[in-house]
Amino acid sequence: MSNVVQLRPADATQRLWEAYRVLAQRIADNPRLRVDVEFQQEMVRAWKRWADAYLAEDAA
């Protein structure tokens, strides 16, 4: 039996965004994990570009 769960792209993207949000909060809460703010902002922009492209591809 497979443990793979099939998700719609929007559901998968939502779960990925939630995982990123949790990670970002943990980084913000722990000074030892903090990284350069510009890097964090670029990471968010790259993540959003990926999610937007992924959803656009699914809609097409």
Molecular structure report:
By secondary structure, the protein is mainly α. The protein has one domain (9-59). Helix content is 73%, strand content 0%. It has two helices and no strands. The protein has helices at 9-29, 37-59. α1 (9-29) runs antiparallel to α2. The mean pLDDT is 75.
SSE layout and pairings?
Blueprint: H1 9-29, H2 37-59
Please summarize what this structure is.
It contains two helices and no strands.
Strand residues, percent: under 5%
Sheet/helix structural class: mainly alpha
Fraction of residues in helix: over 70%
Low-confidence runs: none
How would the global form be characterised?
Answer: elongated
Q: Oligomerization state of this entry?
A: single chain
Global mean pLDDT: 75
Number of helices: 2
The domain count comes to: 1
Distance between the termini: 32 Å
Order of helices and strands: HH
Total beta strand runs: 0
Radius of gyration: 14 Å
Biggest sheet layout: none
Highlighted features:
60 residues, mainly alpha, 73% helix
